[in-house]
Amino acid sequence: MVRRTKEEALETRNRILDAAEHVFFEKGVSRSSLADIANAAGVTRGAIYWHFENKGDLFTAMFDRVILPLDELKAASVDPGEPDPLGRIKDLCVLCLRDTATDARRRRVFEILFLKCEFVEEMGPVMARHQDNMREGLMRIEEGLRNAMSKGQLPTDLDAARAARVLHSFITGTLHDMAILPDMFDVAKNAQRHVEAMLDALTSSPALRTGTDLATDSATDPATDD
User: Fold this and answer.
1) How far apart are CA 154 and CA 199, in angstroms?
2) Can you tell me the distance from the alpha carbon of 123 to that of 135, in angstroms, rounded to the nearest whole number?
3) What is the pTM of this model?
């Protein structure tokens, strides 16, 4: 009986998340109410509050559902015992892009994030969580790059922090472009080549070496933190 209750609770939670995904996609996050989501899920608002504190908490859980499958590759890329950390970074980037291009759920969620989410006051905690996720993502990428450097897969004078920001911008920029012009980017077909080109740039770009003269950057970007 207890197992059945837990299974039912999980089923209800997933139904709410599915409904939220579709309602947010159709109406945008700020115009969607918990009542809209409850109606779409066939549950009461009380059922939503049983599983989620508020709309922001629900949004975060919906987003985490498509991000968590990537955690295994993230962990492998930073594992000192991993013999091919650069390969794991490539797998992570390819999987992220290719899955978004081919998986309807992942594509919807990223389109909601990039195009249909206003970070207004009620979404303040979501914005803070998104910022934390970005910081953690950048840190993990940098750790993975340093791991690859230690294995001789990348130049020892690579500016890992700057390279991590460049790689992160490439991935998020591609996802954003895919959401705006889905017919123009055949990411499913070309994801691996695009990622390999980006990793080649990390290996060969003089601008990504430590000791690069940053005078130009500093003159044009007072807020630079490099």
Assistant:
1) 9
2) 19
3) 0.78
